[in-house]
Backbone:
């Protein structure tokens, strides 16, 4: 994507008098940043002017630079907040190229964002200075440019009034069998199904035959078992280190904090139908030690209700430990999670009691992934969220990429959110938006939240 995309998109709406300032801002965004090189004050003024003028024409930030929206649970203090998911390995790969970071910030402002969920921990790999994850992506950029991408992004985003949340994939390793956590905890850290088959033995990480005739993994990958002794401590330490090394982070955004999803959904272990996970030998032994009961396994359904409750509690314990250690490092940190839009399915099938996490204060806000082409379904879901006791702390996430060929559909879904009065929203994703100039243009020209 050309670094001129933003100026091309905004050029139709900005006065021609500012063409020269805009060009200077774009030129600076395209130049590599090495060491301490930063855009000068003139360029920063030009960029800020771009965004303020875009807001005056109906397409700019919902909040002036330096004054992000109010805190979760206080919807009357400020307009709704808007987050962008920024992928580590998507179309743009901003953290892999520090010269792209000023343009990321500029585009985020033009899109009326107040928050960035920046993916920094994926598949056991880190785009930051980590001693727990494979930090090869971070070191590759640092060695090539002399720039710590996350540190630069924090500086640039904060100067523009944007919050930055470290987005981490907690229990998914994607397809990385070499993740350092497996060296520390062993292959027993990977979940096993009710027949004792490890996901490491699944062909292409999908359901083996004959089960594959009727079942599919929703997200084929390697998943860690939240009930494995020592796993919660390891992951909590991983993210506490991240926050200690980057103390200006505003939030920690948890993703893949659940058991694997299988389609169609299983209602838990009690009916002996479908397929679910968490039956590794170490986890079943822990269940026996803690409850005095034998876990269901294979064809056995004994103690199924207690087993389901116990596995769900282990995921909650993981969230609690991460939250506790993260807040010990930074008490004012915002902790959020990307969660399944159907809370009952998440509860029964995935061990993800996200409503309970909100009620217990483990999360500051939750982001249900309401990715759908069905506008009526979206409206039903957001109206449901609004009616919950914790509705003021639920930000629906929209699958903006679904409408790359029909951007007005994205606007229709944003309008549904506006009418429901949600306190915030998240768009998936920054990468998919900037990959489609028409989609970017339409979003820029639409009034902010």
Residues:
């Amino acid at each position: 994507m050309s670094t001129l995309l933003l100026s091309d998109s905004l050029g139709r709406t900005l006065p021609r008098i500012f063409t020269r300032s805009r060009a200077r801002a774009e030129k600076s965004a395209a130049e590599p940043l090495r060491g301490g090189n930063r855009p000068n004050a003139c360029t920063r003024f030009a960029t800020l002017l771009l965004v303020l003028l875009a807001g005056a024409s109906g397409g700019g930030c919902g909040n002036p630079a330096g004054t992000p929206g109010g805190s979760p649970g206080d919807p009357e203090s400020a307009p709704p907040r808007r987050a962008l998911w920024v992928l580590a390995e998507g179309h743009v790969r901003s953290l892999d190229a520090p010269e792209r970071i000023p343009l990321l910030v500029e585009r985020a402002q033009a899109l009326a964002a107040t928050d960035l969920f920046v993916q920094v921990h994926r598949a056991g790999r880190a785009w930051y200075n980590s001693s727990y994850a494979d930090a090869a992506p971070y070191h590759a950029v640092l060695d090539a440019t002399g720039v710590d991408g996350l540190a630069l992004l924090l500086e640039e985003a904060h100067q523009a009034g944007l919050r930055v949340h470290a987005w981490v994939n907690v229990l998914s390793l994607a397809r990385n069998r070499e993740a350092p956590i497996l060296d520390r905890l062993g292959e027993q850290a990977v979940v096993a199904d009710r027949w004792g088959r490890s996901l490491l033995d699944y062909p292409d990480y999908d359901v083996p035959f004959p089960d594959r005739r009727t079942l599919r993994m929703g997200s084929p990958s390697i998943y860690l078992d939240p009930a494995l002794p020592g796993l919660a401590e390891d992951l909590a330490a991983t993210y506490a280190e991240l926050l200690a090394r980057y103390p200006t982070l505003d939030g920690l955004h948890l993703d893949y904090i659940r058991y694997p999803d299988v389609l169609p959904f299983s209602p838990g272990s009690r009916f002996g139908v479908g397929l679910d996970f968490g039956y590794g030998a170490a986890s079943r032994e822990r269940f026996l030690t803690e409850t005095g009961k034998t876990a269901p396994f294979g064809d056995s359904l004994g103690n199924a209700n207690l087993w389901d409750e116990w596995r769900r509690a282990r995921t909650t314990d993981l969230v609690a430990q991460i939250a506790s250690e993260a807040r010990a490092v930074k008490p004012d940190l915002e902790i959020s999670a990307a969660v399944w839009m159907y809370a009952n399915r998440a509860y029964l099938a995935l061990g993800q009691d996200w409503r309970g996490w909100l009620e217990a204060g483990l999360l500051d806000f939750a982001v249900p992934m309401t990715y759908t082409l069905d506008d009526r379904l979206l409206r039903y879901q957001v109206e449901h969220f609004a009616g919950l006791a914790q509705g003021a702390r639920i930000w629906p996430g929209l699958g903006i990429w679904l409408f790359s060929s029909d951007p007005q559909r994205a606007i229709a879904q944003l309008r549904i959110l506006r009418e429901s009065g949600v306190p915030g929203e998240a768009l998936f994703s920054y990468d998919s938006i900037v990959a489609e100039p028409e989609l970017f243009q339409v979003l820029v020209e639409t009034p902010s939240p």
